[in-house]
From TrEMBL:
Segments forming domain Polysaccharide biosynthesis protein CapD-like: 7-281
Record's protein name: UDP-N-acetylglucosamine 4,6-dehydratase
Coiled coil start-end: none
CDD domains assigned: UDP_invert_4-6DH_SDR_e
Source organism per UniProt: Desulfocurvibacter africanus PCS
Organism domain of life: Bacteria
Matches recorded under NCBIfam families: PseB
Any Pfam family the entry gives: Polysacc_synt_2
InterPro entries: NAD(P)-bd_dom_sf, Polysac_CapD-like, Polysaccharide_Synthase-Rel, PseB
Lineage: Bacteria, Pseudomonadati, Thermodesulfobacteriota, Desulfovibrionia, Desulfovibrionales
Stated family: Belongs to the polysaccharide synthase family.
Length: 327
C-alpha cells in the first residue's frame, strides 16, 4: 500500500524515523518520503545517508509540529502521515511542562486539523505504555494526544482515518538504558538497577517500524492498536549485558512504575484479540476495523503478568544482532 504514495514522518530524524525511512526505501517504492523535523543538523546528517540525488523520493522539511502553518504546507498531497515527533524525556518534561504540552498535545491537535484539511488518507500516531494510567507528565500528554487522534475520526467530518499504535520500550532508541549499562560495565562499575522486580515490554527498533506499517494496513479509524510483544526483567537485561557483574539497587525514580501496562482492566470491555494485535475499540462512535475475539472480562496487558518473556540468552542474542558490544 506504500508503493507510489507520499509518506510524511514527523520526528523523522529520530531513532524510529531513521529506521522507518530505511525500511520504506528497502521494501517499497514510495513516490515521496518526507522527513519533517526541527533539527537542521540531524537532517543534514541524514541526507548524507539518504541524499535526494541518490534517493529521488526523499524530501527534508524543517518544521515543528507546534507550527500549524508549516504543517499545512508540508501535508500538501501527502497520503500517509506517521506521527513520531514528541518530547519524551520524563525528567525534562517534569521540569519544562509547558514545552511538553505544546509539542505533545498542541502538536497533535495541529496534525489532526492539517491532515483533515489537506486530504491526508490515514494518520497513525505513535503512543507509549506510559500513556496508560500515567504517573508522569509525559505519559499524561501522550494520553491526551491519543484521545485527540481517536476523537478526530468523529469530529473532523472528513475522509481522513486516524489511529494510534501503542507499544513498550524500544531497544536501542534514544534514552534506552542499554548504552548506560554498557558504559557502566566498561568502567568496571556496578550496574544501577532501580528495582530488581521491575519489568518492561521490549522490542527492537525494526520491530516497532513493522508494527506501525502493519497498523496502516489494518486500522479502520479510532482504535488503539497494541501489538503482542514480550516482556523482560531488568535484572535479566543487566545479566545479558554484563554477566556476573554486581548491581546496585537505587530505587524507583519519580513518575516511574514497577511494571508497565498497555491495556487496563477497564479497557478490556471494548478490547478484541485479532491474533498479532489487541485492538482497543472506540466507544463514542462505530468501529470499522478488523473483527476479533473479545478478551476476557478484567483482562489486563501488563509487563509483569505477560505470558511471553525474553530469557537472558535471547536478550543477549538480540542485543548482538542490534550491533551492541555484547561478549
Amino acid at each position: 500500500m506504500f508503493n507510489d504514495k507520499n509518506i510524511l514522518i514527523t520526528g523523522g530524524t529520530g531513532s524510529f524515523g531513521k529506521k522507518c525511512v530505511e525500511i520504506l526505501l528497502s521494501t517499497y517504492k514510495p513516490r515521496r518520503v518526507i522527513v519533517f523535523s526541527r533539527d537542521e543538523l540531524k537532517q543534514f546528517e541524514m541526507q548524507q545517508v539518504y541524499h535526494p540525488d541518490t534517493y529521488s523520493c526523499m524530501r527534508y522539511f524543517i518544521g515543528d509540529v507546534r507550527d500549524k502553518d508549516r504543517l499545512y504546507r508540508a501535508f500538501r498531497n501527502v497520503d500517509y502521515v506517521i506521527h513520531a515527533a514528541a518530547l519524551k524525556q520524563v525528567p525534562a518534561a517534569e521540569y519544562n511542562p509547558t514545552e511538553c504540552i505544546h509539542t505533545n498535545i498542541t502538536g497533535a491537535e495541529n496534525i489532526v486539523n492539517a491532515a483533515a484539511d489537506c486530504g491526508v488518507r490515514k494518520v497513525v500516531a505513535l503512543s507509549t505504555d506510559k500513556a496508560v494510567a500515567p504517573l508522569n507528565l509525559y505519559g499524561a500528554t501522550k494520553l491526551c494526544s491519543d484521545k485527540l487522534f481517536i476523537a478526530a475520526n468523529a469530529y473532523t467530518a472528513c475522509d481522513t482515518i486516524y489511529s494510534v499504535v501503542r507499544y513498550g520500550n524500544v531497544m536501542g532508541s534514544r534514552g534506552s538504558v542499554i548504552p548506560f549499562f554498557i558504559n557502566k560495565r566498561d568502567q568496571g562499575e556496578p550496574l544501577p538497577i532501580t528495582d530488581t522486580r521491575m519489568t518492561r515490554f521490549w522490542i527492537t527498533l525494526e520491530q516497532s517500524v513493522h508494527m506501525v506499517l502493519r497498523s496502516f494496513e489494518i486500522a479502520g479509524g479510532g482504535e488503539v492498536l497494541v501489538p503482542k510483544i514480550p516482556s523482560m526483567k531488568i535484572t535479566d537485561l543487566a545479566e545479558a549485558i554484563a554477566p556476573g557483574r554486581p548491581t546496585l539497587e537505587v530505587g524507583i525514580r519519580p513518575g516511574e512504575k514497577l511494571h508497565e501496562t498497555m491495556i487496563t482492566a477497564e479497557d478490556s470491555r471494548h478490547t478484541i484479540d485479532i491474533g498479532d494485535y489487541y485492538i482497543i475499540k472506540p466507544v463514542t462512535f462505530p468501529y470499522t476495523g478488523p473483527e476479533g475475539s473479545p478478551v476476557p472480562q478484567g483482562f489486563e496487558y501488563n509487563s509483569g503478568t505477560n505470558t511471553s518473556w525474553l530469557s537472558v540468552p535471547e536478550l543477549r542474542g538480540t542485543l548482538r544482532k542490534q550491533g551492541f558490544d555484547i561478549q
